[in-house]
Design brief:
Layout: E1 2-3, H1 18-27, E2 32-38, H2 56-69, E3 74-81, H3 88-98, E4 103-106, E5 110-113, E6 116-119, H4 129-145, E7 150-151, H5 166-182, E8 186-189, H6 190-194, E9 197-200, E10 203-206, H7 211-217, E11 223-227, H8 240-248, E12 252-253
Parallel strand pairs: 1-2, 2-3, 3-4, 4-7, 8-11, 11-12
Antiparallel strand pairs: 5-6, 9-10
């Protein structure tokens, strides 16, 4: 088993540290574990759901300590990042080049719609078409940047935009076309399943993963992965609903073994 999307206490809405995740994964028979907490921003913006810059060094060192302590487990150092142009150099130069991160996940939890910063989890289901397209534009620009290895929950817009209408379909095609062009895997996200189904305009559904999105995805030459998005060690487990979706729409499963480098990740 493999997992690439996990969080630690540093993001302020998760439990446990990297060593706790590694110990649990090793006991459960995982062969590969990626650690991908929410990135800090260099200006320490938006500390509500992420570590500060002063915590970054400890995060990296805690990873190496856990990796050394679990030599049978292939561990990868990563971050989950929102794409903003002003942070692009930080992601590339500080995380990927200087600190030698194995991978970055693109997870667009916040984005600008005009001058307003939108937080997807605060919007409810009253999101507008303008916000829907702002999300899609931010995600596609992140894909096009070439600095990410995975797109987390690309269908996250289902959390703030209620209808599966022509606008939602157009945005989905836009995202899927970009993923196909740039050959970047898309994630079916287990955290969305853990949040349960909601009544959305008379339809009982998960806010995400959004099944019609993945049905549409089957029409594209893309690959997918199923991640738990674990916010505590006990959430590390195969996401059965996600794998059923893979089988239902005959989706191609991504091979991310090339992300692992058996070099210790240290300078």
């Amino acid at each position: 088993m493999q997992e690439f999307h996990t969080h630690t206490f540093r993001c302020k809405h998760a439990e446990g540290d990297i060593s706790d995740l590694a110990e649990y994964a090793e006991r459960r028979g995982y062969s590969m574990l990626g650690i991908s907490d929410h990135t800090p921003f260099p200006d320490d913006h938006d500390l509500e759901i992420r570590m500060s810059m002063k915590e970054l060094e400890n995060y990296v060192q805690s990873f190496h300590t856990a990796k050394t302590g679990h030599p049978k487990l292939k561990m990868l150092l990563g971050m989950e990042c929102e794409y903003f142009r002003k942070y692009r150099d930080f992601y590339k130069e500080e995380l990927l080049l200087k600190r030698n991160f194995d991978y970055l996940i693109l997870g667009q939890h916040i984005f600008f719609s005009g001058k307003r910063l939108v937080y997807f989890w605060k919007e409810g289901l009253g999101g507008t078409k303008k916000e829907l397209w702002a999300y899609a534009e931010a995600l596609v620009e992140g894909i096009e940047s070439g600095i990410f290895s995975i797109v987390a929950h690309p269908d996250l817009f289902g959390n703030f935009y209620a209808p599966w209408d022509e606008e939602a379909k157009s945005c989905s095609r836009y995202i899927l076309e970009a993923a196909q062009s740039y050959k970047i895997p898309l994630e079916i996200n287990g955290n969305g399943y853990r949040k349960g189904k909601r009544d959305v305009r008379g339809i009982k559904r998960f806010l995400y993963p959004l099944e019609p999105f993945w049905e549409m995805a089957s029409q594209y030459n893309i690959s997918v992965l199923v991640n738990s998005d674990a916010h505590k060690p006990s959430q590390l487990a195969p996401v059965e609903e996600g794998w059923k979706l893979v089988d239902l729409y005959n989706l191609k499963v991504a091979d991310l073994s090339e992300l692992y480098r058996d070099s210790g990740n240290q300078d």
